[in-house]
Amino acid sequence: MTATSVPKTRVALVTGATSGIGTEIAKRLAADGFIVVISGRSLERGERTARELGDQVHFVRADLTEHRAAEILMERTLRIADRLDVLVNNAAIDHIGPLLDTPTDEVRQTFETNTFGAISCLQAAGRAMRERGEGGAIINITSRLASIGVPTMSVYSASKGAMLALTRAAAVELAPHNIRVNAVAPGMTNTPLYAEWVSSQDDPEATMQRVASAIPLKRVAEPADIAAAVSYLASPAATYITGVSLPVDGGYLAQ
Length: 255
Known about the structure:
Helices cover about 45% and strands about 15% of the residues. The chain is an alpha/beta fold. The chain has two domains: about 10-185 and about 220-250, NAD(P)-binding Rossmann-like Domain (Rossmann fold, 3-Layer(aba) Sandwich), CATH 3.40.50.720; about 190-220, no CATH class. Strands 3-2-1-4-5-6-7 form a seven-stranded parallel beta sheet, sandwiched between helices. β2, α2 and β3 (about 55-60) form a beta-alpha-beta unit. α1 (about 20-30) crosses α8.
């Protein structure tokens, strides 16, 4: 094989990848052969996660609510790997609370990470992909809650609904640069946050059964289910797919 025919190793950036779904996405993309840069707010947790995932995974600390955080994250990613093929916008915080009683600062805090931080990452990644001239894939992790209403989840739903709308608009706007923009919308997923919520209920076992019974496939998602959808949208098999939201919810939204 000549030097010019050696395939380039693709590079992915996964934000919010130091636990739960983000870690599983990074693990899957590394297994797919990517060099993976992961980001998160905790230096200790991020470095530990990168060590556990292997030599082709690199950690960059980033708090996406800080000034120029997305631009600095992109600069460091390009310094590590010299290119970017895939961005997975996964960083997010949860918010639960009655809509009419939610303070404005909590609304702003939720949007700063889930929406504004994600938009900044999309812009920074899109500029890097446009400059290189080879296109790329941007995958926004949204939620089933971007498409349905659930009491006490209105603020979180709104932050993810904005990203769903952005996904569709950005897909059209960035198509001339061969940058595909899609979303993955997880349903209830067995993450540490889910386990913590279940354990806080009066009857955790009954709660798990109730949640599963509302899902056509009768189980909550595993992080690997979400990672598999991301893997597909990041792969050459999905080069003609853009502007879609792929529900990974066991059929919940189909009801």
